[in-house]
Amino acid sequence: MRVAVTGLGCITPIGNTVETFRDAMYAGRTGISVFPTDMPGSRPGDPGLRFKTTAKVKGFDGTQHLSPSVLMVADRSAQFGIVAAQQAVADSGVLIRHNPANVAVVTGCSCGGRAADEDANRELYTRNARVPPTVILRTMASSGASHISAQHGVTGPVLNLATACASGTHAIGMAFQMVRSGMASAAIAGGHEAPLTFGFLRAWDSMRVVSPTSCRPFSADRDGMTLGEGAAMLVLEPLDDALARGAHVYAEIVGFGMSADAHHITQPQAAGAALAIGRALEDAKQAGINEPTGRVAYINAHGTGTLANDATEAEAIRTAFGAAVERAPVGATKSLTGHGIGAAGAMEALATVLALYEGRLPYTAGVTNADPALKLDILMNEPREIDPARDLALSNSLAFGGLNAVLAFRRLVP
Amino acid sequence: MNDVQTRIIELIAKSKNLPASSIGMDTTFEELQIDSLDKINISFDVEEMFSIQIPDESLNSLKTVGDVVRGVEHLVSSGPAAPVAS
Q: Of A201, A224, A301, B37, which sits most exposed with the smallest number of CB within 10 A?
């Protein structure tokens, strides 16, 4: 069964609708900015951090979209996910056609309700306060999936995956496999995360991988990642069904590859990432694509902007593509959205789908001088028209702990 | 209306996003669409507000706003809360 993407939704640092996300993406308008230091738990004026920027979602008001009873038990992270799913479901109209008992919801959320957790624990440990009963419900990483299922009456397989920075990609990939196999007749899949709490920033600060300036993946002068938040959701359904009901088809998902490095909790291995890329391309053959490597028009890289990730990922891409790498342009949208952890892969899948749909490749904002040691064609300075002879795009996610996931999408020209 | 009654009605009104004027002593939880989770949340807030502990067995028997008010008045008059663990 071929699988189509028929609905999109997002709450991101560069836009809280798909249209604003797309416009900011092509304009290279980054969502990364200096954060206020008066966050709960921090000392006024001096948060004690080496970095000053994050990619925050702006102008999001959950009360505009969610009932008081949901707001009471849904953390900012889940709220992002629920609202992004509302947008995607409305965009696709999927539930008009599909029996909700056969629809799946697969979310990627790794950090859970981080704000609820920290707020309660701060009160608990500083003044022995009691912990409100809603804390358990707000901290569950699966709460977004539960609320999405309840809101849309979806009673099929509903689950959350937590594979750190690859969660959103794993979620979309597993949902893709469910729809392709017939296990689910449609799926709502993506990721959501809102981890920009003081304790989280402090912990990342200690890892010494956060940029003191701003995330510039693949740049010769890159100096680290920038933490972000947000959500993106996709609606997936069989391509034939989508065409039969006259649904709007953004792209086709044609492949999914997973692998593990089996090596180290922070040191990525090129061999592991190359394995996942190769498997996603190999998987595309099931969709009737015989020479997938030569058809890749765009690679949305994991591209965190750290020295280690970008060098290892570049090596993995070169390994997986061989000589064909010269005609496979690579970009990273984390320079716009920051690193949304569990939501990152979903926001990047959204960017990849839009790039294919629009026929234009976004560029890596903030990069003017690509690192020549990486030996890749890095998209920078301005958007690039897609090579009309090529119709595939990859979205890579390479998580801490060596958990790799790669999605392959195909452009469907009407 | 006494102070305990006013404060409890205001607390319930706020938690259910309703005007306090719509809630009286005889109003039932069912009428207010207070489910088991709401009941746990409201009890938590009431305990914090009055520095009391509502025993589990009393919680199950609360059906109306008046039940809460009378229960709180009883607990307040019987002195400060006992330690959590005995």
A: B37
* Geometric angle at alpha carbon B47, from B45 and B52, rounded to 5°: 170
Whether residue B40 and residue A133 make contact (CB cut-off 8 A), yes or no, is yes
**Chain B interface, best mutation among A66, A67, A69, by max B CB count within 10 A:** A69
Q: Out of B17, B37, B47, whose CB is closest to A68?
A: B17
Residue A24 burial by CB count (10 A; 0-12/13-18/19+): exposed, middle or buried?
buried
pTM summary value: 0.94
pLDDT tens for residues A169-214? 999 999 999 999 999 999 999 999 999 999 999 999 999 999 999 9
Residue spans of the domains in chain A: they are 3-410
pLDDT digits (tens, 9 = 90+) for A304-313: 999 999 999 9
Please check whether residue B68 lies inside any domain of the structure.
yes
Retrieve residue A159's tokens: 């689950």
- C-alpha A11/C-alpha A107 separation (Å) is 14
Q: Is residue B37 part of a domain?
A: yes
Write the residue in A69, A73, A132 that is nearest to B44 by C-beta.
Answer: A132
Q: Is residue B82 part of a domain?
A: no
Write out chain A residues lying below 8 Å of B41, CB-based. 72, 132-134
* Distant-in-sequence, close-in-space partners of A310: CB < 8 Å, separation ≥ 6: A217, A218, A222, A301, A303, A304, A371, A374
Domain count, chain B: 1
Task: Answer yes or no: do B44 and A68 touch at CB < 8 A.
Answer: no
Closest chain A residue by Cα to residue B47: A130
pLDDT digits (tens, 9 = 90+) for A244-283: 999 999 999 999 999 999 999 999 999 999 999 999 999 9
CATH number, domain A3-410 = 3.40.47.10
pLDDT in the model for residue A414: 58
3-state DSSP: chain B helix, strand, coil percent, rounded to 5?
Answer: 60, 0, 40
Q: Tell me which of A109, A111, A165, A215 is the catalytic residue.
A: A165
Any domain includes B86: no
With an 8 Å Cβ cutoff, the interface of chain A facing chain B consists of 68-69, 72-73, 130, 132-134, 137
